[in-house]
Amino acid sequence: MAGRQVEALDKFEASAESWLTDDDAPALAVLRLLAEELDAEPTAALAGQYGLTYRNLLRRKPAAAPEKDAAQAAMDAALGGESPVP
């Protein structure tokens, strides 16, 4: 039976499936090892290293496109497509 940290990592991997690549495999392997160790015998050092590795991986996540406000949407509609204003 998986522990809480391993289960949390499984959920993260499933939710990040669309942007994780093979380049992320080493970081994911480290996270998996740390998660297993945290579930078995948690220490502050392990928790800190897990957090650091997780945040570094999360930085690779592509930024979400900002939502258009009503004025931008109206401008796009009037111009028949995307407006040149960022």
Number of helices: 4
Helix content: 55-70%
Shape: elongated
Radius of gyration computed on alpha carbons: 20 Å
Structure summarized in a few sentences:
Helix content is 62%, strand content 0%. By secondary structure, it is mainly α.
Properties at a glance:
86 residues, mainly alpha, 0% strand
Task: Describe the protein.
With 86 residues, this protein is an all-alpha fold. It has one domain (4-64). 62% of the residues lie in helices and 0% in strands. It contains 4 helices and no strands. The longest helix is centred in the middle third of the chain and has 16 residues, at 25-40. It starts with a helix and ends in a 7-residue tail after the last helix. The model has no long low-confidence stretch (mean pLDDT 87).
How does the SSE layout of this entry go?
Layout: H1 4-15, H2 25-40, H3 44-58, H4 70-79
